[in-house]
Amino acid sequence: MFKRIAFLLLLAGGVSRADAATGDTIVAVWKHNTRGAFTMSFDDSMETHVSVAMPAIIQRGLVGTWFINPGLARHRKHSKVWGIDGPKNGQEYANHTWEHKGAKDYQEADYQIGASARYIWALRGPDASKLLAFASGGGTTWTISDLEREEIKSRYHSITRSSELSARTDLGIDGDKLIAKARESIDEGRWVAIHFHGIGGEWLSIDSEGFIRLLDYLRDNKDKIWSAGWSAAHQYAKERDHARIDLLERSDARIRIRLTTGLSPELYAEPLTLITQVPAGWSVVAVKQNGQSKPFHARNGALQYEVVPDRGEIELQPDR
Fold first, then answer.
1. How many CA atoms lie within 13 A of 139 on its CB side?
2. Which of 168, 308, 312, 319 sits CB 3.0–4.6 Å from 284 for a disulfide?
3. What is the mean predicted confidence (pLDDT) over 278-295?
């Protein structure tokens, strides 16, 4: 893994391999060709998420995954923050059920999971993935079978969250340990996910000073670590591992490739970072796909850019 990451970083730095040919394309291990991915989840639609966590994350250009309970009064109280400010600033929402209370039967379980999913989907754009991270909520009671709950989750494209760390002061977690976890993602080239409840107050909380130190570390190391939503990181990894790149045409005037994964476009819609060898004279390159064009800058014959797989041919041309 380390050698592959080092090779991708070398290409993105503008150094071409001696044996690379025009049109040769690879998928970066992580988005923006960073060394690792790091996900911060926040449970329960808490007041300190609105007053402390989300503003601090948005201010630093980072992303949180917010496991919300849209049916609770404390969520409805901050409808502008949850309904407008978060989505406008690229925050990711996840399914934590409608009211965080479990379910006494199949019908109620369908409502608790389904209503939350529909609320989140309505806040996403029409081309956004419907795939949702899911957590049922601690201290809740579900009197349906595990099989029934999995069936309902599947219907609403909700997959169980994984997390390596519960960030709580009472568990001995502080800023140093949070930053050490972030460093793991860089040093080991992998995706690390942790989750929070209260920030500087409320229940199961973490000290706010340590939390802010983590955010500053992530901001200062954006070139090395991707601050990723849980669903976004999951999608990227699966798309990357299933990616097939077909070179359709290469010349000094144009390169055409096809990027496919065989995955459901409805669920897997996260842009992948590609790195393509282009002619040395290309500086600004127009990347065209699905009727849209966006300019990217090449460095010493290496072009790094982002496209969504399974959305038709990708065409690269010098932007004259």
1. 6
2. 319
3. 95
Where do we find the tokens 């990708």? 314
Name the pTM for this structure: 0.93
Q: Which CATH architecture has domain 35-227?
A: Alpha-Beta Barrel (3.20)
Helix (H, G, I), strand (E, B) or coil at 256: strand
Residue with tokens 């639609």: 45
User: Domain spanning 2-30+242-318 has what CATH number?
Assistant: 2.60.40
Task: Concatenate the DSSP letters of all residues of 150-213 into one string.
Answer: HHHHHHTTEEE---SEE--GGGT--HHHHHHHHHHHHHHTSEEEEEES-BSSSSS-B-HHHHHH
CA 39 to chain centre: 7
Question: Which amino acid, 205?
Answer: S
Nearby residues of 4 by Cβ (< 8 Å), 6 or more positions away: 29
Confidence label for 126 from pLDDT (cuts 50, 70 and 90): confident
The per-type count for the chain, helices as H runs and strands as E runs, is: 11, 18
Tell me 27's DSSP state. Answer: E
Q: pLDDT tens digits, residue range 241-262?
A: 999 999 999 999 999 999 999 9
3 state SS of 141: strand
Within a 10 A sphere around the Cβ of 35, how many other Cβ atoms? 22
Reading the block at residue 120, the tokens are 């989140």
Which pair of structure tokens corresponds to residue 71?
A: 């049916």
Tell me the domain boundaries of the chain: 2-30+242-318, 35-227
